[in-house]
Amino acid sequence: FRSLVSAEDVESIKQAQHLILGRLQDSNAVLIHFNEYSEQCFAEVSSDLASKARLLKSMKDDLDHIFMKLRYLLACLFFF
């Protein structure tokens, strides 16, 4: 097998693998940092998002109730 591949090619492959490993490690470090930052940002806004979601659900329930009453009133108006 050694006679089929030159030592220069093997060394070139090893250097390329080392370069790729370094880039992957750098990318991994960036992703870890980004995940930590994202987790921190989410922790800061999650309670606010939850309260806004509850408010929106309450508003939707109120609007559903209003439209149900309006439909009832319109049905009564057309019935008489």
Automatic annotation (TrEMBL):
Q: Which GO terms describe its biological process?
A: lysosome localization
InterPro entries, sorted = KXD1-like (IPR039843), KxDL_dom (IPR019371)
A Pfam family hit: KxDL
Query: What are the GO cellular component annotations?
Result: BORC complex
Superkingdom as given in the UniProt entry? Eukaryota
Q: Where is the KxDL domain?
A: 1-73
Q: What's the family?
A: Belongs to the KXD1 family.
Q: What is this protein called?
A: KxDL domain-containing protein
Source taxonomy: Eukaryota, Viridiplantae, Streptophyta, Embryophyta, Tracheophyta
